[in-house]
Amino acid sequence: MSRQSKRQGAPFVSRDAAQFSDELARRFRLLSKAANEYDAGDDDQVVIMAAILRVFLTDRLIDRVTPLDQLAFTDTCDRLPASAIGGYGYGITRFKVSAGLQSGSIVAPLGNAYREKQPPVAPFDEWWSKDHVIFPTNRQFRTREFVVYEMANTDGIHVDADLDADYDALTRDNHGFQLDGVMVGGNLASAAVRQIAWETQHTLHRALPALCGPDFPSSMHCSEGDQLFRVAAMREEAGD
Q1: What are the DSSP calls for 153-172, one per residue?
Q2: CA-CA distances (angstroms) from residue 143 to 8, 129, 139, 158?
Q3: Is the backbone of residue 214 left (phi > 0), alpha (psi -120 to 50) or beta?
């Protein structure tokens, strides 16, 4: 029941299980559409992806159809080496450089590393709110929940006057990379939300194939010669 209905005392009807299934399938299609348009160059679609992910994962629409906490979520995080204190191109984002080093961008790798094998999985709670998979430049590592919640609630559904400082930094964080003196494109916040969308699509298609079709890319588009880079910042050993 909406808050407006509560205020007015209006009558309401409850959705049944079939209607919740239909709504989940519809939002899966909307997520896929927004993701496809984002991949085609419409950066504005990232806030739509964040809003839909919030409905799925924070508002737990998935729970109305299948137990969310029992799902094994696709986990594409590339974890840092044990002795690393930071990393660029690790976590759920990558640094893509075009052929000839003409340009670069912070990107979502989608399923590039899993063309010939299935990605690992993780329990929902660990995947969503415990595992720190976003590695900002000189800031606290962050969870998937953090970036989706902040983008959806302060840059999407609402446009807040005050932003979380770490989230605001994520929206401008490209690790300071330059190619021929030109800053690379993209940012960690947008790339992370795009990757979380892909992981969620992959998870729902595995769990609910009749509702959530395979209408999402298996991997990101790369032109011939494009490369994905990662660099770990290692802890200095005593005496070095």
Answers
A1: IIIIS---SS--HHHHHHTT
A2: 39, 6, 13, 21
A3: alpha
Amino acid in position 169: A
- Residue type at 46? V
Residue identified by tokens 């840059």 is 155
Domain ranges of the chain: 18-234
* Digit-coded pLDDT (tens) for 87-123: 788 999 998 887 666 667 889 999 888 888 899 999 9
Please give the structure tokens belonging to residue 76: 């594409």
**How much is the average pLDDT of 38-54?**
96
Q: Could you give the CA distance from residue 69 to residue 63 in angstroms, rounded to a whole number?
A: 8
Select the more confidently predicted residue: 211 or 175. Answer: 211
CA distance 96 to 90: 12
Average pLDDT, the chain: 88
Residue 225 φ/ψ, nearest 5 degrees: 95, -15
3-state secondary structure 28-66: HHHHHHHHHHHHCCCCCHHHHHHHHHHHHHHCCHHHHCC
pLDDT digits (tens, 9 = 90+) for 174-203: 887 776 666 778 899 999 999 999 999 999
